[in-house]
Batch of 4 targets.
Target 1
Amino acid sequence: MKLRTSGFSLLEMIGVMAVMAILAGALAPSVFQMLERGYQDAEQQSISTVAAALQDYVLVNKTIPTENINVWTVAVAGFAALPPQRVQFNEKNFQRRLYVDPVFFTTSAQTFPGYTQTVGLAVMPNSPRAMLVSNLQGNVSAVLDQASEFDDVWNQSGTPLLAESNTLIIERINLAPLFKRLVLSNSNTSQAGYILEAGTEGAVAAGSGTVDGTRSVVVLRNSRLSLNAAPFPGGVTQRQLIVSRDLSLRYESDGSNWFWSES
């Protein structure tokens, strides 16, 4: 009697392959969705890291970079512990984009010129906002040069030029908390002075009679402030401090000595 050899017949193999094909077809969409979800989660984490690095860069360097891709990516790369290419391009190798509110400083729209602190700002910025935008399906190329266009994307209202989705990710950056107000007053009849970081010396107007001279200055948080005695310029530095909150300081006398005190 002839014994049957072990193994699969052609029909059995065809049947197994058909079942495997059916299973693969059923599982493929789920696997694809899981991979895409992984890309989305990784990209959300990446641009959050880049946004935090941008704010760290601003506070350390007292400088806000422009929207130019070669400027802001290089500026924040070291603070994100990433090479510039990984800042510039997302998880699928598409280019990210930084948008700064066109009415950042004033109500007149303009291309953001960047900012480097010297003597500080006279008034608070009008709308200190920025957005990092990343698209996992292509390069981000929209132009948001009008305040209304920026607002529509920020708020996802009207008909935004960039519609937020699982694949188009927007990281909103409110820079307002980075700015602090200083009010400097001077009861001396000569101008006093102040210096921010290693910037140029600014003047605090002289007092007149019982009315103090004043200067209101908006500075970036954690700025080193040096307060100088009269006369301006070139008075001796009497006090130094780090500006971590809104402050009011007065140059005054106890009858024999002039000094800066917090008021």
Target 2
Amino acid sequence: MTRVGLYFASVQFLFVTCWTVYVIYLPQLAAQAGIEKKWVIYILMADQAIFTLMDFSIGVAADRVGRTLGRLGRLLVVLTAVSCAAFLLLPLVAPGGSPLPFLALIAVWAATSSALRAPPMMMLGKYVPTPGVPWVATLMLVGMGVAGAIAPYLTVSLRSLDPRLPFALSSIALIAAVSGMLWAEKHLAASAAAPPAAPTPRKPLNADVVLFFAAAALLGLGFQVHFALNSAPLYLRFAKPAELDHLMPAFWVGFNLLIFVACRANQRFGGAAVMASGAVLGALASSLAASAGSLELLLVLQFLAGGAWAAVLVSAMTAAIAIGHFGREGAATGGLFALLALATFARMALVAAQLNQDPGISALLVTLPGLAWAAAGLLLAWLALRARAAAAAAG
């Protein structure tokens, strides 16, 4: 399982790195394609809208295709090949000055790249024994976390390069990595303790599941506002703008280190309790960061906030797999990724409307992550207590 987890980590690292490269160069490429700078934020919002729709749709498709061994791995390789081809063509088409082909390639890339989000999690839920799911999910998420940590350094390093080179290197590396997906699927199937169970009859969503996903949406919104909108202004109270590239990764350092603690806690105490605890810790860290009196204290709080987000994310992934077990893991994890994409869309919409520049709204945004995470933590704690009481009554 560890080998497959490390493989999935490399795939997620390369996928997030491709997104970073895309965001770095999008304004430049859009200008070459004849698109004004003011429309770039709306292109990014459209990407997130596509992710929202496709994450769930591809998750559902993965459940159906994955019933036959080997078909899902082949599907992921094909979709990723299409995605990488579209990505590779972006810096080649943009200088032509025609916006329609450029935007069409972006849409194809966004739609097909969703294949690398929910389907790998579906594989874990289908083949990995329940006690091992947090560990493999942790390794997979570390790939995302490392990519998030190096994003500021990539921004500085790539800014002066011809975009064709990083687009080509990242595309080739990603498709080379994803070509091993068939091996990963067969390896997981071969190492499974027992054959995967047949899909269970479809049941209507119960209230607890709906509330879990509502809590996940609140947590995703809190993360987006805390990291993407609030972190830089908080740092700028004590540091110069040029220092942000070295300070922003503190969140992801906490994420990558404390996620292993969260994994062990998940295995010992259960995902619901750890997810609730991570939400409460994140609420405290975010709220205290808003009034931190020194850069050193702010760095510690950002480190803890990153660890809290790690606890939330690994628990949420594990819980989503459990909700979809057996036969609907792709739909459940796809729904989770869709909600996270929707939270990103909401944050970008705030920026597009320039609401974050309004003094009253910006003051509210400082407190929003703490409130959202605290509300989600209380909701998750209540759900955990309900589940424990139901288990005790059944026992």
Target 3
Amino acid sequence: MTQTIKDNMFVELTYKVTDKKTGQVLSAVEFPLGYVHGANQVLAEDVTAELEGKTVGDRIEIPIDCDKIYGPRDESLVFTDRIENVPEDYRELGTTITMENEKGDTRNFIVTRIDEETLTVDGNNPLCGREAVFQLEVLTVREATEEEIEEGGSIDNAEADVNHSLKVPLE
């Protein structure tokens, strides 16, 4: 009998997020993500609802308006400085720099542009302003153990599952 995704079922899946306009893959999992359906909030509510009733081998695509998840792009979070004012460790495209404000709140900024004279960092989520498609493939559906229900995921991969945790899509 084919098992379907419902509460307290252990589900393992792969996913990728692509830009709807360009087709560019924005994010993908390297290893399958395992979670207990209905026992934790690894995935956004919209995605969880779409997975309900699916079985092994099912593939689904969910359009995502990233502005609804991360808010609209905020140009005040983009800063450009002379490259000599930036420590050498941060002078690489794609580097994440964690900055702290006077209140102690932190925000990640990503190095998005470098030229011979300047370096630009952006504190917006990389998905802001994009329309994306979340593509998932269901690999495993089975009854979850009591321990898995308690943990919200695979006991063997509890730490990995937490590290894959996302509110669709990922950062």
Target 4
Amino acid sequence: MRDWSERHRLAGRRVGFVPTMGALHEGHLALVDEARRHSDVVVVSVFVNPLQFDVRADFDRYPRPIDDDLRACADAGVDAVYAPTAAAMYPPGFQTHVEPGPLAERLEGEHRPGHFRGVTTVVAKLFAAVRPHVAVFGQKDAQQLAVVRRMALDLDLGIEIVGMPTVREPDGLALSSRNRRLGPEQRAAAVVVSRALRSIEESLRQGTTDATVLVRRAAEVIDAEPLARLEHVEIVDPDTFEPVHTVDRPSLALAAVWFGEVRLIDNLLLSTG
């Protein structure tokens, strides 16, 4: 992978990169299109990273349709697919990790211990192999995007990190590889996540700025769906991910909701203008 990238770099071409865990969908392909706008050649990685799963069963159940992913990449004009094995990424004796800072301690970091340590470690290794000029991440994983941006800045990686708006189904559900694990009734119920976030936006538009009230209203929307189990809804500063008490500046509403054994996350940027 590194040799391939170096040849393109020496030829003066910009290398774009989209890291994924596979089970590709239209959201991933939108990231590929965005990477193409920033570069001359595009690499997609497909690697289900064991380090970022805090529950082994969740890792085992994660979909791995590699043949479908390769076809999707070919159809999208991807120039190279990097699909290392876990043994290649973490050979015997592997012991070095990238430790994220306070930005990774709340929300996803709190509910999924070790998750962001796994993310930063694998992304650093993928960056070292692919050697991109630019890497594109989806904003659905907003905290992950912020943590990766912080890592790239703090470690002077010289890689431009681009965030891409969340791609949604017509009914508002954020596209996710986990969606394919939902049963038909769960899939129909899952739209409640984006509906709850939109309820925050609507209440804010009507003049409610108290974050506690806004969060309570969103939680009520989710609790009204029998198949949904709320993990958390919060409103935070989009840069620090610290809680916001009064929404009088741009803020980020985030939600994590369980449908059976499937955990879905979503977020919505709140504007006060």
